[in-house]
Amino acid sequence: MKTMKDYKCTIIHLVVYTLVVFEKVAAELQRIDHGPSKPDGSLDILVVGDWGRRGMYNQSKVAFQMGKVGEELDVDFIIATGDNFYDHGLIDEEDPMFFESFTEVYTSNSLQKQWYLVLGNHDYEGNVLAQLSPVLKERDSKWLCLRSFIVNSGIVEFFFVDTTPFQEKYFIEGKHNYDWRGVLPREEYVSNLLKDVDMALEESSAQWKIVIGHHTIFSASQHGNTQELVDQLLPILEAKEVDLYINGHDHCLQHISSQDGRLQFLTSGGGSKAWKGDTNPWNPNEMKFYYDGQGFMTLHVTKNKIGVAFYDVFGVIIHKWSTTKYTHGVLEQ
Ligand SMILES: *[C@@H]1O[C@H](CO)[C@@H](O)[C@H](O)[C@H]1NC(C)=O
């Protein structure tokens, strides 16, 4: 016969077991609150990708225009879509590359705001832990690079996803050395990350959901689609009614719309060296814009509207798009 003590024991075991299991399943993404600074609650954000080349390949020119536009729009923060330092990330936290390609390039007043950065495959070719290290924040307070995280800005939530570990070829082709510390075993890392992103999107009550990763989902440029993300990440973004997926990786500016017009795929990978002319044919109903030169992107977000603009190296707007949403989850173009 079971005594009261046995039952108590079982209950305690159940509670402990549930806590442990829950913790494993919900290894939550780090969450950062960054509310809008403008009184009307709107947000303005700059997005740049594939940039760190000591100012060369027009990186400085793009940076200068980002500064001007950043000032005009009074931007809240800056998003960087990965490949922060070419060709092989940072050597360590003391690497002068950090100053030469970041601090000494993005010098405008308006760019001295918080930067939220993800890692690209070139960053994984160097010392990843150096880019993630809090020491860099001490060296330049606007720097914040994490693997996967959430920035909550009230009306909009940004979900940053570490996409490099998804791509199988990096693990098998042996062309480069990658710093996989903290990533192996890969299958576990990727499946936990997908669960975390899925759950975070599920729990989000923000009017707008924007997902950011380095790698393309869809792209007509040199790298093309990333099949692993098409297979594994895209179904989650569609199911959770994500509004925008923003990436770098292909060195161009690009806007692809999904067939039903809901999810938009935006490439902002024009921070320095661009890939001239390297374009594949694409369904013209989906391809809203393609530019194989340098530049950057802006986002303007209000409760009912998101506006996207692409700028070239001269600071000229070369593509604009916007969408409105009046009831949560209902899209009206
Ligand atoms: C810099 O930008 C200009 C204008 O788009 C372009 O003509 C030139 O080729 C670019 N330079 C490099 C090194 O990419």
From TrEMBL:
<feature type="binding site">
    <location>
        <position position="83"/>
    </location>
    <ligand>
        <name>Fe cation 1</name>
    </ligand>
</feature>
<keyword id="KW-0479">Metal-binding</keyword>
<feature type="binding site">
    <location>
        <position position="249"/>
    </location>
    <ligand>
        <name>Fe cation 2</name>
    </ligand>
</feature>
<feature type="binding site">
    <location>
        <position position="86"/>
    </location>
    <ligand>
        <name>Fe cation 1</name>
    </ligand>
</feature>
<feature type="binding site">
    <location>
        <position position="121"/>
    </location>
    <ligand>
        <name>Fe cation 2</name>
    </ligand>
</feature>
<feature type="domain" description="Calcineurin-like phosphoesterase">
    <location>
        <begin position="45"/>
        <end position="252"/>
    </location>
</feature>
<keyword id="KW-0408">Iron</keyword>
<keyword id="KW-0732">Signal</keyword>
<feature type="signal peptide">
    <location>
        <begin position="1"/>
        <end position="27"/>
    </location>
</feature>
<dbReference type="Pfam" id="PF00149">
    <property type="entry name" value="Metallophos"/>
</dbReference>
<keyword id="KW-0964">Secreted</keyword>
<protein>
    <recommendedName>
        <fullName>Purple acid phosphatase</fullName>
        <ecNumber>3.1.3.2</ecNumber>
    </recommendedName>
</protein>
<dbReference type="InterPro" id="IPR051558">
    <property type="entry name" value="Metallophosphoesterase_PAP"/>
</dbReference>
<dbReference type="InterPro" id="IPR024927">
    <property type="entry name" value="Acid_PPase"/>
</dbReference>
<dbReference type="GO" id="GO:0003993">
    <property type="term" value="F:acid phosphatase activity"/>
</dbReference>
<keyword id="KW-0862">Zinc</keyword>
<keyword id="KW-0325">Glycoprotein</keyword>
<dbReference type="InterPro" id="IPR004843">
    <property type="entry name" value="Calcineurin-like_PHP"/>
</dbReference>
<comment type="similarity">
    <text>Belongs to the metallophosphoesterase superfamily. Purple acid phosphatase family.</text>
</comment>
<dbReference type="InterPro" id="IPR029052">
    <property type="entry name" value="Metallo-depent_PP-like"/>
</dbReference>
<feature type="binding site">
    <location>
        <position position="214"/>
    </location>
    <ligand>
        <name>Fe cation 2</name>
    </ligand>
</feature>
<keyword id="KW-0378">Hydrolase</keyword>
<feature type="binding site">
    <location>
        <position position="83"/>
    </location>
    <ligand>
        <name>Fe cation 2</name>
    </ligand>
</feature>
<dbReference type="GO" id="GO:0046872">
    <property type="term" value="F:metal ion binding"/>
</dbReference>
<feature type="binding site">
    <location>
        <position position="50"/>
    </location>
    <ligand>
        <name>Fe cation 1</name>
    </ligand>
</feature>
<feature type="binding site">
    <location>
        <position position="251"/>
    </location>
    <ligand>
        <name>Fe cation 1</name>
    </ligand>
</feature>
<dbReference type="GO" id="GO:0005576">
    <property type="term" value="C:extracellular region"/>
</dbReference>
